[in-house]
Amino acid sequence: MSYKNFPMVPRVIFGRGSFNQLNDILEPKRLNSKAPFIFLVDDVFKNNAWLTSRIPLAYDDRIIYISAAEEPKTSQVDELVEDIILTTKERPSGIIGIGGGTLLDLAKAVSIMLTNEGEAKDYQGWDLVKNEAVYHVGIPTISGTGAEVSRTTVLTGPEKKLGINSDYTPFDQVVLDSELTQDVPKEQWFYTGMDCYIHCIESLEGSYLNAFSQSYGEKAFDLCKEIFLDNNLSEVESQEKLMMASWHGGMSIAYSQVGVAHAMSYGLAYLLGTKHGIGNCIVFDHLEEFYPEGVKLFKEMKAKHNIKLPQGICADLTDADFDIMIKVSLGMAPLWENALGKNWKNIMTPEKLKSLYQKM
Ligand SMILES: [Fe+2]
């Protein structure tokens, strides 16, 4: 047995208003005294001076606004990298992602592709990255995905939706300022928060579980219950706790895996472009058979916050469409093995998977 030796985020700043210290954090990292920092920022903040006026810009530093309406793509990473190479005279000092999972994953991928040849799709998989990435910083503005701590950056490519999993993927620095999450719309807050909750259930109920994953998973699970069920937290407490739940949920799956909901929602995302948080919710709602307790609590949370999930998203799909989703989903072997054990192929046959998708 050989154990995996994982890197972790080496530096993190936590606290309300810590975003104001960004200049102090970045300036010592500036290369050749003037190489630029590139800020990838969710375009919902485009005219939001409260946030953007505090992004410290000097020399040729740039903000690139990016829509998170669609899941990040390998082609999008390649375009961003080309644009950055063409418009900056030297290798950037750093890439800073400000936003949710999409922006954080784009920042990670762009920082990797600035120092590695070829296209982003060539690196989808495990440990394919050869060179250390450019210094990269993650600043979440919504909590739940765990992208701020994870060792992957999940991208949709021409053939698959799969992460660039590598030792060079994790951020060099994360800024956890819960104030940045204060304007997240309720639905988005719920879907993304449930991504974290589902990470906990899939990790804690999985066959890969170990004390490392369990300790983080249980903490994140308790925080999720406090936030989404108990309802006796102030707004600020709730935002801070969800930020830490996301962190712990991400740490929990680092040393285990996710499960059925993620494997199935990857299929939905690939075929229909369903975004990760809502896709996980749509799937998880129908998974009583695999996660009875977890789904029961999920339904309570959904009712409590008056969330109506889309229905019938697979109603008009053809057999060929189902085949594509099934292929993508069953391709996630480690997720299925974690969820259902070594004999998962006997349990989750293509027919069984199709019958599950047909409920959605
Ligand atoms: Fe997730």
Give short descriptive properties of this protein.
360 residues, alpha/beta, three-stranded mixed β-sheet, 14 helices, binds fe (ii) ion
Could you provide a short overview of the structure?
By secondary structure, this protein is of the alpha/beta class. It has helices at residues 22-26, 49-52, 74-87, 101-113, 186-204, 211-230, 235-254, 260-272, 276-284, 292-304, 319-330, 333-340, 344-347, 350-358, and strands at residues 12-14, 37-42, 62-66, 94-99, 125-126, 136-140, 154-156, 161-165, 173-176.
What does this structure look like?
The protein starts with 11 loop residues before the first strand and ends with a helix. It is of the alpha/beta class and 360 residues long. The mean pLDDT is 96. Helices cover 45% and strands 11% of the residues. The strands form two sheets. It has a six-stranded parallel beta sheet with strand order 1-9-6-4-2-3, covered by helices on one side. It has helices at 22-26, 49-52, 74-87, 101-113, 186-204, 211-230, 235-254, 260-272, 276-284, 292-304, 319-330, 333-340, 344-347, 350-358; strands spanning 12-14, 37-42, 62-66, 94-99, 125-126, 136-140, 154-156, 161-165, 173-176. Helix 5 runs antiparallel to helix 6, helix 5 (186-204) packs parallel to helix 7 (235-254) and helix 8 (260-272) packs across helix 9 (276-284). Bound molecules: fe (ii) ion. Fe (ii) ion binds next to helix 5.
